[in-house]
Amino acid sequence: MPRESLISSTFLQLADTLVADFDIIDLLTMLADRCIELVEADAVGILLADADGNLRVMAASSEQARLLELFQLQNEQGPCMEAFTSGQPVNCTELREALERWPRFTPYAVGAGFECVYAFPLRLRDTVIGVLNLFKTHAGAMPAADVQLAQALADVASVAILQDQAARVSRVRDLQLQNALDSRVVIEQAKGMMSERGGIDMAAAFDLIRHHARQNNLQLTRIAEQIVAGTVTFETMNTPLVKQPHQSR
């Protein structure tokens, strides 16, 4: 496939994730593979931050690339750590000259056959969620067009991932709201049953249910479900209660 067509196809795949469910691992693996094809890189690694802000290897173009990333994380040193911390791209076109900068990472990377590295933050404005790392076996700067393309791919991937996270949070919030609404229906049913069977008003029935739930260290909804199911009745409630007459209309 011609390079221009492959670029278009890649961005289209990334854009598709904005309107459909997708597998983040599969997305990032595709991105790593495409970077090998589209820019002058010999190995690619992609890392994402977990909930505690610690980077984790999510995709790599080869086992060698994965080990390079793990080495950086284990030693808390290298271009990916700098790019993630600063939120800015990091590059070193002559790795052999970076011994003072990364005293542990540099010998390891050079020993693995790499002479140049670029690290692009996965970010959306001020939010940095990970890093895209490109490794080259030959020293020297990548073409400016390749650098721009790599950062653009990283940016679009970031938008896709953050959009997916936002959608998941929204779904959880909607589910919690629906559960609350469903719970309220059950509680109202239980109040009505307690009110009728105990000859008390609705407010007293609710207080009785709440007190019983607290005494038994159970959720209010759970007690209400038991009342509706008939496993808990007014007579079996273990809370003493002075009957109150129904309020007159």
Q: Overview of this structure, please?
A:
A hairpin with a 5-residue loop joins strand 1 (about 45-50) and strand 2. Mean pLDDT is about 80; it is low at about 240-249. Helix 1 packs parallel to helix 6. The protein has two domains: about 5-170, Beta-Lactamase, CATH 3.30.450; about 180-240, Arc Repressor Mutant, subunit A, CATH 1.10.10.10. The chain has about 250 residues and is of the alpha+beta class. About 30% of the residues are buried. It has a five-stranded antiparallel beta sheet with strand order 2-1-5-4-3. The chain has eight helices and five strands.
CATH topology of the largest domain: Beta-Lactamase
Helix count from the secondary structure assignment: 8
Share of residues in helices = 40-55%
How do the SSEs run, as a string of H and E? HHEEHHEHEEHHH
From the coordinates shown, what is the CATH architecture of the largest domain?
Answer: 2-Layer Sandwich
Overall number of domains: 2
Please state the overall shape, judged from the principal axes of the Cα atoms. elongated
The largest sheet has its strands arranged as 2-1-5-4-3
Annotation, overall tally of beta strands: 5
**Mean pLDDT over the residues:** 82
Q: So what's the CATH class of the largest domain? A: Alpha Beta
Strand proportion, as a percent range, falls in 5-15%
Distance between the termini: 80 Å
Summarize the structure.
By secondary structure, the protein is α+β, with helices and mostly antiparallel strands. It has helices at 3-16, 24-38, 63-75, 79-86, 105-111, 144-198, 202-215, 220-229; strands spanning 43-49, 55-60, 90-92, 116-124, 127-136. It is elongated, with a radius of gyration of 29 Å.
